[in-house]
Amino acid sequence: MIAEIGLAALWLAAALAVLQMISGAAALRAGPGETNPLAIYARPAAVVQAFLAVLAFAMLLRSFAVTDLSLKLVATNSHSMKPFIYKLTGTWGNHEGSMLLWVGVLAASGGLLAAFERRLPELTMHATLAVQGFVALGFYAFLLLSSNPFERLPVPAVEGNGLNPLLQDIGLAIHPPTLYAGYVGLSVAFSLAMGALLTREVNPAFARVMRPWVLGAWVLLTLGITAGSYWAYYELGWGGWWFWDPVENASLMPWLAATALMHSVSVLAARDALRTWTIMLGVLAFSMSMLGTFLVRSGVLTSVHAFAVDPERGAFILGLLGLYIGGAFTIFALRAGAVAEGKRFAVTSREGALVFNNVMLSAILAIVLLGTLYPLLTEAFDVRVSVGPPYFNPAGAIFAIPMLLVMAVGPLLRWKSDKPARIQFELMLIAALVIGMIALVSFFGQFPLLPLLGLGLAAALAVAAFLPLRGRSLKRVPVATWGMVLAHFGIAVSLFGMACEGAFSEERLAAVAPGGTEQIGDFAVTLEAVTPIAGPNWTAMEARLAVSQDGGAPVILTPQARSFWSPPQSTSESALLTKWNGQLYAVIGNQAEDGRWQVRIWWKPFVTFIWYGGLLIGFGGILSIVGRMRVDLKRRAASTKGAQRRADVEALGPAAPQPAE
Length: 661
Prior knowledge:
Order of helices and strands: HHHHHHHHHHHHHHHHEEEEEEEEEEH
Oligomer: single chain
């Protein structure tokens, strides 16, 4: 019965998406001064649709929680002996469940927009809801016609197949939901952009409505990518934090587009500039989200992240991709000329710096897109190629390095127009920090060029992030400005961690007998024993490593080589020793014929700063959202107060004439 309630809720939600789309479109077709009677249903349809979509996901969550083996999805992706937390997270650890989560968040976002947003002109809101209903309808059709999560088995299964062991980790509770929510935030920004374009209301008021959705999506994507990077780092046992895997790239590309969109919409909201650029980036950011969905679910990729599905589903998503994005760019081409030009600005201005960095971000996005799709294109001609760090790192650095330099300087410039001579001291300081750090590190040895440049840029960015506060009363600095400062400082922290990991990491691979010791950096690692252990749904060989630094007291690490039985798969569970200045990373391998065990150890100086920086960036984004919301609330309160004062004056009537003296 639970499954039937969920399926019925999905069908009703799809019907309401049709009503929402038709109602919004009807408002657009009404003539000047006319009101179409259907238009009043757009907002209620979005709100009720949100309730039904969330209800459908709750029913699927319940089915996984109780391991309802009469459902095909549960039987395929769960197991009665699986730990309860992984039963719950397994709800979206598969194709159908993750798509239902996507649709649920999409509908909930549209419902919130319809229920609480009153700043947009009503016609623009109806156009936005029509586009949002159209987007939602495509995904409802995909779920109901191609990927039904509530499909019943003719005969309930005796036992489930279980979840991919690599997904049986708490990271599954954090990484995918935050990414999906970020993708959905970009879909709302897309709907708002198209609604404003259709009604020719591309102005600062529209940008202020769009900005929190873009900021929220960007924060969620940042946190999701950060969590996913750390999850892959400790779970896969490979010792790296970014592999340039095609599906990793599929999450990075929307983040790059969202970063450009976030800055563009802020300029439009504050300075009434970059109108057309903002609309184009809104379409591009959602295009990257749709492309990522296609890559993950089409079956064209072989990846630990990808869902193995049949090509028909991929063709369905490809059709949606062509329909939404092709249609959006067509409308953009037809209507962009009708968008009034915003205010102009000089090249040497804060707006100019933001435009330059948006161009750099777009170039990096193009590089990642080309490197991701090129192997797929060559494979169509039976030529297999691999594109990895030797391409992505130097090609991306060509545009990332000038972007980071301008990012250090940009917040110091004035709006509209400025002269570089005014910030001569700051420019010299930034240059001195870059050159000084590179020279200092080079004095101690020879290191790769890109990590050296990264260290220099990290030092400059860390100081430059706080330069906008110079000479200001810290108590009077707006919360949104603090958010910008922390986000930019977080980029410096992450860049420092990446550069240190690339320049100073040490690796030791050895065959060690019990009682043997290996040295790596300042650490002595002794293999004390390897013993079999058992978990709730796995068995493992667990190594006991005694790690001492500079002869100090030993710390015990216990890396494991696990074997899951449902489904049967082997995994490597790393063990980490975290210090303030880095991590010792240990993995146990197979046993050789002579009784020795393969042990792989890394010392990664300051590698944790990569993820600390990601958290700082996300926190800075949250502060910016809070700060912008406070400003908008004050603006609305002042506007309401002014309107009330005018109404009171009008209610009193014209003032009586004063008698002449």
